[in-house]
Amino acid sequence: MYLLGYDIGSSSVKACLVNAETGEIVVSDFFPKSEMPIHAARPGWAEQDPAMWWENLKLANRSVIEKSGIDVADIKGIGISWQMHGLVAVDREGKVLRPSIIWCDSRAVAYGEKAFRAIGPEKALASLLNSPGNFTASKLAWVKENEPDLYGKIDKIMLPGDYIAMRLTGEVTATVEGLSEGIFWDFQKNGISEEVMSCFGFSYDIIPRLVPIFGFQGAVSAGAARELGLKEGTPVGYRAGDQPNNAVSLNVFHPGEIASTAGTSGVVYGVLGEVNYDPLSRVNTFAHVNHTPEEPRLGVLLCINGTGILNSWIKKNMIQQGLGYDDMNVLASKSPVGSRGISVIPFGNGAERVLQNRDPGSSFHGINFNIHTISDMVRASQEGIVFSFRYGMEIMEEMGMQLNLIRAGNANMFLSSVFRETLASVTGATIELFDTDGAAGAAKAAGIGVGIYSSNEEAFASLRRIMTIEPDVAHRDEYEAAYQRWKRYITK
Questions:
Q1: pLDDT of residue 162
Q2: Scanning 24, 27, 183, 391, which has the fewest C-beta atoms within 10 Å of its C-beta?
């Protein structure tokens, strides 16, 4: 038996085939091999065509099926992970009406802030656990005001993963996790937020019917089976946003457990066992995949938009042609802790929630033309990303979270020894790296949803830890001094 997972990112789409009996990854692949384009017609905007996600999913799916040589009838479940907070709008025929306004688009900030004031901060935080901010509901409000003719054609709105599920099954559905990340869910009433729908003037008809996060969400249609080379009727058994799903991939289900990623954006995600929120809404609280009203499981999410995208910008604009990320990591390791006085502020990818939706942009400080080298610049950039993590983690600690152990996949920025050692040393947390990713996690989670596994412990029993990084106590003072210097540039 096999399980298939899809991870719909903003850079690429990944497919992963997992042996359901051993838990081992059989084969995985991603497309495109260069990053998917993000269209920005104006500063602060970010859009992608959902059809591009589907076309790259087909390529990744075809690759893993062909490379594995399996009989597709042996695939017993499909799981989906997606880039969070995006808006996909379709008409009655399921036709996409406009490009998706994706997670790093900041055009709707003012709409969310206006709604926050109208609903009342105390009431909004108590029920939504967040301000409406720049999330899906606020993005839909922007469409309603600025594209009224198009808005009038909307039959249903979706998150990116809901769109993929629609293409797979032909059915338009949603989950509590998805609606909570879109800021449509009321945790006090355990239903669609009346305040949000009324404040923005939305009809309840645009919200799809709910399906369970783990469980039958529909079956692969005849048309999708032909497009993908899958068996008609294969069940979709799980879907969740990429950060809850990353936690799932690392077997993070219970209060006190922490997961992190550092791709295009960077995230620290911890599970709370009680309803709580940051009173300034600088970190976000959503339904985790195993949340129920009777047994709350909430994901507290610290997101830094300017993470891997800063590393990518450095590579494209400052690094000698032909050198890759591994070469950059070597360069960074040649500079000492603190990058000889350079501080890099990484906030150059839209408004940052951790800064209360300010968009200060990225900036470089302390460069001396006579002493600094490209190694110092690369290290300072990676340190700046880590310091933004530390800044947000201090807020999570104020909420009562313990951040002594961080689990992460061995990928993206965590491939850099400078990044992971700095993160451990500046936070005092031990880091455990595992051989997994979002697509593999979605595949195994689908096994729970279709009943192959009876628990998350069984599903993730094969999870393999490949490295443990302890804080560098000997250089604690240097790390702390570099962080405090960095922090002054964002608290002026």
A1: 98
A2: 24
Angle between helices 417-427 and 374-398 (to 10 degrees): 40
The 10 Å Cβ neighbour count of residue 93 is 6
Crossing angle of helices 325-333 and 417-427, rounded to 10°: 50
Query: pLDDT, tens digit, for every residue of 114-161?
Result: 999 999 999 999 999 999 989 999 999 999 999 999 999 999 999 999
One-letter identity of residue 103: W
The reported pLDDT for the residue numbered 276 is 85
Give the predicted TM-score (pTM) of the model. Answer: 0.86
71 DSSP 8-state letter: -
Structure-token pair, residue 223? 């048309």
- At 22, phi and psi to the nearest 5? -100, -20
State residue 132's pLDDT score.
94
Give the integer Cα–Cα distance in Å for 329 and 315.
Answer: 11
Element (H, E) at 210: strand 209-210
Whether the Cβ atoms of residue 56 and residue 41 lie closer than 8 Å to each other: no
Query: What 3-state DSSP class applies to 360?
Result: coil
Taking the C-alpha atoms of residue 114 and residue 119, their distance in angstroms, rounded to an integer, is 9
β-strand pairing of 191-192 with 185-186? antiparallel
Helices 476-488 and 374-398 pack at an angle, to 10 degrees, of 80
DSSP E strand boundaries for 9-104: 13-19, 25-31, 47-48, 75-82, 88-90, 100-101
Residue 281: predicted pLDDT:
84
Best CA proximity match to 15, nearest among 446, 439, 447: 439
> What pLDDT is attached to residue 237?
98
Round to whole Å and give the CA distance between 53 and 112.
Answer: 27
Q: Is 317 exposed, middle or buried (0-12, 13-18, 19+ CB in 10 A)?
A: exposed
With beta carbons less than 8 A apart as the criterion, state whether 9 and 29 touch: no
Structure tokens at 11: 């850079």
Q: For residue 318, how many other CB atoms are within 10 A of its CB?
A: 12
Q: Rounded distance, CA 466 to CA 275, Å?
A: 34
Give dist(CA 128, CA 285) in Å, integer: 8
What are the start-end ranges of the H helices in 230-296?
Answer: 242-249
Mean pLDDT, all residues of the chain = 95
Structure tokens at 171: 């059915």
The full DSSP string for 298-331 is: EEEEEEESSSHHHHHHHHHHHSPTT--HHHHHHH
337: left (phi over 0), alpha (psi -120 to 50) or beta: beta
Nearest Cα neighbor of 485 from 375, 337, 278, 297 is 337
Residue ranges of the chain with per-residue pLDDT less than 70: 492
